[in-house]
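Let us practice reading a record.
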Amino acid sequence: MTTNEPPRNFTVENVRRVDGYLRDDGLYVVKVQYDMVATADYEQVVKTLGDDAGDDDLKRWYQEVSALPAMEQKFGKFRKGQRFTRTTELLLRRSEAGWSLSH
C-alpha cells in the first residue's frame, strides 16, 4: 500500500505489531501485519466505480486506466469476504506529546 488508508472496498482487521526497532536518527520503525477483507466482489467494485464517475469523463478515464488495473493487479478478481494479509512499516517520531507518525 502506498498510503496508510485501505482501499474503500476493504476493511482492515487483525492489526498486530510483528517487530520494531529504534533507528540511529531517533525514529522508531514498527512493522505491522494486518488483513484486508473485501467488502464486495471485484465486479461490484467495478460497477460502483463506474457509477461514481457519472458523466465525469476524466474521472471515468482515470478509473479505467489507473485505478481498476492497479487494484486488479494487486488483488486479482477478488470475492466478497476474501482476505489479503499485508505487512508494512510505519515510522514513529517521539515528541513531548508522545509518539506520532513521521513523514
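A brief commentary: The mean pLDDT is 86.
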